[in-house]
Design a protein that fits this description.
It is built from 10 helices and 15 strands. The strands form 4 sheets. A 6-stranded parallel β-sheet has the order 5-4-1-13-14-15, sandwiched between helices.
């Protein structure tokens, strides 16, 4: 699968995941700096796309800069930022009432929406229940979320990841909270993040290209690659993250990448040195 099925001339936008692709924790992965520098040298558009809910875009821009990769916050789309854009579209610029399961980073990305937040003690029903990663979730918060969804509030998940990778292993992710609320209410959430295509759609709108002109680079079959495939983008899987080589053999067509590389160093070789 390492033989390319497209030409570099076909690409008008690189969309690159972060964790497991560019870095793992605070350690840059092999070839990341060189790969990104090559894209910059060719003056090709680049956007970073991550399912993160905890931090604002500026945090990731600062983290990448500290690793020697200068990036503007506007070149990063997080699931938290995309959730804010999605709510602005749904409410047509109006300021909705929101009950939020989430932390300060998510609140910062919703600031342009100018929401009025409700607490779990408020009897008023929120217009939207927004669920991100909340490390201080409790029973009262879940009760409020369940009641409001049952009363007709929009039910929105920032992402659907069941696990949150940390340096010590894994912790429960946003998907755990969503599953609890869905089980209680019977209502399925709209999930903004991967593998939904919404974040990639924002990138395409920003750069004015067609889905077929995008190369989505990621390390997860069921999020990065599925998102790209669903939208009709080209996809590249790097094996520097969570996907093991043996999983590729079992991947259904909607998760099958167009090209596979060990890491970004290998992908740079496949894309830029084999013309």
């Amino acid at each position: 699968m390492e033989e390319r099925v497209f030409s570099l001339d076909d690409i008008r936008l690189f969309a690159v995941d972060l964790d497991g692709v560019v870095y793992r924790g605070n350690v840059m992965l092999p070839g990341a700096s060189s790969f990104i520098s090559r894209i910059r040298e060719l003056d090709m558009p680049l956007i970073f796309v991550t399912n993160s809910t905890l931090r604002p875009r500026g945090y990731y821009a600062a983290k990448l800069k500290a690793m020697g990769i200068p990036v503007a916050p506007q070149e990063i789309i997080t699931a938290a930022y995309a959730t804010g854009r999605y709510l602005m579209r749904i409410f047509n610029g109006a300021s909705p009432t929101v009950f939020l399961l989430g932390e300060r980073g998510l609140e910062e990305e919703l600031e342009d929406l100018e929401p009025r937040y409700l607490t779990f003690q408020d009897q008023e029903v929120a217009q939207a229940v927004v669920v991100g990663l909340d490390r201080k979730v409790n029973y009262e918060k879940l009760c409020k979320a369940v009641r409001d969804v049952m009363e007709g509030a929009l039910f929105i998940g920032v992402n659907g990841d069941p696990l949150w990778p940390v340096e010590e292993g894994f912790m429960p992710g946003v998907g755990v909270f969503l599953a609890a609320i869905e089980t209680a209410t019977g209502v399925k959430p709209f999930i903004v993040g991967k593998p939904n295509t919404y974040m990639l759609e924002l990138a395409i709108q920003l750069y004015g290209c067609e889905p077929s002109q995008v190369l989505m680079v990621g390390d997860k079959l069921d999020s990065d690659i599925m998102m790209g495939r669903r939208l009709g983008a080209k996809t590249a899987l790097v094996l520097s993250g969570v996907t093991l080589p043996g999983e590729l053999e079992k991947a259904p067509p909607e998760m099958e990448p167009h090209v596979v590389a060990r890491d970004l160093a290998h992908l740079e070789e496949l894309l830029f040195h084999s013309e």
